[in-house]
């Protein structure tokens, strides 16, 4: 498999929450790997997740994200903002 990431990702096991645009819908997730520029996230299903959303970590840090790839239970996302929080 070819590596397309700009920065390497490190394994992680952190709880998170996806916050959809408007803030009315949220989904619990697990962050499985992490870098300065993005993350791999696991969910029950990726079907209801739009291309852009916010990802909130347990410590309150939030990133705006763009989906780079998806499969039925995982998302690869790029952080498209500076760290908030």
Structural write-up:
- The chain is an all-beta fold and 85 residues long.
- It has one domain (10-79): Thrombin, subunit H (Beta Barrel).
- 0% of the residues lie in helices and 53% in strands.
- It has no helices and six strands.
- Strands 1-2-3-6-5-4 form a six-stranded antiparallel barrel.
- The N and C termini lie far apart (35 Å).
- The relative contact order is 0.23.
- Residues 21-81 form the PilZ domain.
- This is PilZ domain-containing protein.
- InterPro entries: PilZ_domain.
- It comes from Peteryoungia desertarenae.
Short description:
The chain has no helices and six strands.
How would the blueprint of this fold be written?
Blueprint: E1 10-19, E2 26-34, E3 38-42, E4 52-57, E5 62-70, E6 74-79
Antiparallel strand pairs: 1-2, 1-4, 2-3, 3-6, 4-5, 5-6
């Amino acid at each position: 498999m070819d590596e397309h990431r700009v920065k390497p990702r490190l394994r992680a096991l952190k709880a998170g929450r996806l916050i959809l645009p408007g803030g009315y819908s949220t989904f619990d997730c697990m962050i499985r790997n992490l870098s300065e520029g993005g993350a791999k996230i696991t969910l029950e299903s990726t079907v209801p997740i739009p291309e852009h959303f916010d990802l909130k970590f347990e410590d309150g840090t939030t990133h705006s994200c763009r989906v780079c790839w998806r499969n039925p239970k995982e998302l690869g996302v790029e952080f498209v903002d500076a760290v908030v929080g």
